[in-house]
Amino acid sequence: MRVPRLQAAAIREARLPAATVAGTAIGLALFAAGYGRAADAAWAATALGGLVPALRGMVEALRARRAGVDVVAVLAIAGAIALGETLAAAVIGVMLATGQALEAYAAGRAERELTGLLARAPRTARRIAGGAVEVIPAEAVQAGDLLLIATGDTVPVDGTLLEDQALLDESALTGESRLAEARPGQRIASGAVNAGAPFRLRALATAGESTYAGIIRLVEAARASRSPMTRLADRYAGLFVPVVLLTAGGAWAWSGDPVRALAVLVVATPCPLILAAPIAIVGGISRAAGRGVVIKGGGALETLSRVRVVFFDKTGTLTAGTPRLERVLAAWGGLDPAEALRLAASLAQVSGHIMSEALVRAAAERGIALSLPGEVREEPGMGLEGEVDGRRLRLGRLPWVCAREPSPAALRLQRRALRYGGSATFLGVDGELAAAFALEDPVRPESGRVVRMLRRLGIGETVMLTGDHPGLAEMVGASLGIDRVLAGLTPPEKVEHVAARAGAPALMVGDGINDAPALAAADVGVAMGARGAAAAAEAADGVIMVDRLDRLVEAMLVARSARRIAVESIVLGMGLSFLAMGFAAAGRIPPVAGALLQEGIDVAAILNALRVLRWQPPRPGAGIPPAVLQSLLEGHRELGALADELRSFAAELDALPPAELAARAKAAAARVRAMVVPHEQQEERDVYPALAARLPGPDPLAAHSRTQAELFRVLRSFERLAADLEPGGEALDPEDVADLRQQLIGLATLLRLNLAQEEDLAALLGMERAAAPAPAAAGTPG
């Protein structure tokens, strides 16, 4: 493996300290043997060796037209030799050489995550062509190529999984060691490593357009940039050098002893200000990269630490960005909901539209086998038309599917579908409206927690900017606790709102192409890059590589920690240097002791700056066994599906014959009792006590227990009502039906609330991948 650039530099820099230490030791040995002149020569040669990096730094500073403390080092060595203080000159040489090596080592440590990302870049790919597998450069892969990802291979380009599943190590992208499981049709980002069986991948982009290539560009930008903190250090150096020279001149004039002036120069050489601040900032960038957030440079990191206003895009940022099928509503009795989904998903296979992908994904999750469509035609802005199993289908907008003005019944179906989801698409079969599919873009499970955490970090205002309908946007904003919701905006209007913030540094978070202008307009922009648009990533100052919004909070915590430690290091180094200069000017510190003292100051400042590398995200659940957290989430997918079935049952009560309604009510009560009660009782008995013992407060899980108790109360009431339903062929009492509907909705709501509470708790305690909510059932509970 190629040695990273900074590590090689650190190895080269280690040679000079070894030579200066050896030269000083030889001089001491000669002096002890009575060869004073030879000792002076050895020490002078050692000092000249240490003078090399100081001269190089001084020349670079002059070329850049900025002040540098290296001039102090040059004057100190020259003055020590001129005054016959050759041992002091040698110690200064050792100090300069070791300081240079220590800086290279510290910078290498601070950049280890960044250089690691560069080293892991995929370079080859296995392409399947004509039944054979050929190894080609990653740059040669084209969109549409069929690739084989062998065990241990790094995914070379973004692509779609063609197998039943894949097990991936995404630690290079996300910073998490836990393996991730991918499903059929799921998009897989380049840079992930295959930790399971070989699988096939359909390339969606070239290597240069893929996720990891964008990360590499961001890393290079981060390594090349200079932060405001570093430039601030340069400005302080411009003030520091004149103060040092005036202090040295004053000490000489006051005492008449040039050695005092030399001692002042020695204790001021070199200034740890220039070493510590960049190391702390680069360390913060590196630590953020280790948590899956690539920040382009120190300037962005330093600005991120001062943010007081946060703007969010909605779709793909606060929400998942991928519609999920909530419900299938049949328009006429001859078509089963599952059959309607099969037909629609079969036709949707050939389309890359986001709604088509949602239908195909929902069919795959339900295990529905799809047919190959024929004669498919896509009408832009309207939908798809084609044949499936001899039936002529249309899938898309309601007026186009109906091929005429929608009837009152069709409009009622549309209103029902939009009540269940934020959007809907419709299926026509042989010229007749057959079904509606309610689709919802679910809010990210962590979004509400992120807003609350930002408020605790001192963020003064959170604002949602979206082009969506105001009603839907207000509903999402209210559920998350967003301070202001601005809906129905065009991209230029988003830019206007971001640019019009009142003085406080502003952060914009988005993911799509339409967010790129607002990301660029903000003081600092962060793109959701796990599957976001390349334009957004290029315009942003940072990219969250893992599809988790809560990493934004971690990046802000890292930025604040890095800035605080950088300032601490500056104050520590300069404060100790000024104190030592005072003692040296008073004649209390000779040049040799001053050189040793300054070396200690440098080491202290650099070690303090390296503290940022020890930063870890807050882990309230530290010490809780993983098995306990896993038990908290066990069965959530099945219970989520049960909650959806209860809601579907409640919506169908008026259309069911009395006998069927009574039978299904009893079956639903028995199913809830069998699935929910053992799960909740086991948690109350085993899981909650284990968590409560490690969480603060006298009863930290009281709200969870109260939710469970209310769930059990409603279940008992529902069971009694279901047992009383004996229609005898007659119509049921309308009040009983109303009570039944109320209790079904109550059970579903309480069950969803309980699952959401537990998933939020698990994520807060360190479970990075809380169970995803189950897809809504296409049919009704049996």
From TrEMBL:
Coiled coil: none annotated. Keywords: ATP-binding, Cell membrane, Membrane, Metal-binding, Nucleotide-binding, Translocase, Transmembrane, Transmembrane helix. The chain crosses the membrane at residues 16-35, 236-255, 261-282, 565-586. InterPro entries: ATPase_P-typ_cyto_dom_N (IPR023299), ATPase_P-typ_P_site (IPR018303), ATPase_P-typ_TM_dom_sf (IPR023298), ATPase_P-typ_transduc_dom_A_sf (IPR008250), ATPase_P-type_domA (IPR059000), Cation_Transport_ATPase_IB (IPR051014), HAD-like_sf (IPR036412), HAD_sf (IPR023214). Residues 631-760 form the Hemerythrin-like domain. It is found in: Cell membrane; Membrane. SUPFAM superfamilies: Calcium ATPase, transduction domain A (SSF81653), Calcium ATPase, transmembrane domain M (SSF81665), HAD-like (SSF56784). It is a multi-pass membrane protein. Residues 121-220 form the P-type ATPase A domain. It comes from the Bacteria. PANTHER family: CADMIUM/ZINC-TRANSPORTING ATPASE HMA2-RELATED (PTHR48085), CADMIUM_ZINC-TRANSPORTING ATPASE HMA4-RELATED (PTHR48085:SF5). Belongs to the cation transport ATPase (P-type) (TC 3.A.3) family. Type IB subfamily. This is Heavy metal translocating P-type ATPase. It comes from Tepidiforma flava.
